[in-house]
Amino acid sequence: MDREEKWGVIADQRRVLAGLLAELDEEEWERPSLCGQWRVRDVAAHLALTPQSPGLFRILAAGARAHGDFDAVNRDLAIAHARRPGVDLVGELRELADSRRKPAITTLDNLVFDTLVHIQDVAVPLGRTVAMPVDAAREGAERVWRMGWPFWARRRLRGLRLVATDADWRAGEGAEVRGPVRALLLLLTGRATTALPQLDGPGAQYLAAGASDLGR
pTM for the full model? Predict the structure, then answer.
């Protein structure tokens, strides 16, 4: 995918999420998401905040106060932004869908998989189905496999061979884990319990035995 296609996927996914959120009642906004310690409301706020992220200085200052725990910084920013009414978050997602601003400490490739995965964090526990674009999911899987922090996918999934059944993507060596690339992306980003029912192969059986140790 080229740069324009990646930004197009992000914009489309933001609009899809806004449409889903617009239908929620108050109880659904407060449900736990797939992302540990984040409610549906917090994940929505995170995605709405992404194109409005504070500058590098404020992020680094917040990171210093959190003793380098940037996961905590992300969570705190999202929870603070989530205090606004749900209708405002929906409006921001729609208004800023085409924005190409991004946090100073991330990249476009990171933003693609972050958007895809967080929308599933919202949709799955609500019992909604949101399609994940295959090409974008493949790009996301490749990016997460190559990076280290925060997922450490190559280390966590050492001894396994991941093979997408709907895209030209594979990674690793060992017992095979087969399935749609969207499920492999969820596995790579720590959503093992959600991903495993969509996966098969000898490696998937191994993962199922220890899913509680492999992430959300």
Answer: 0.91
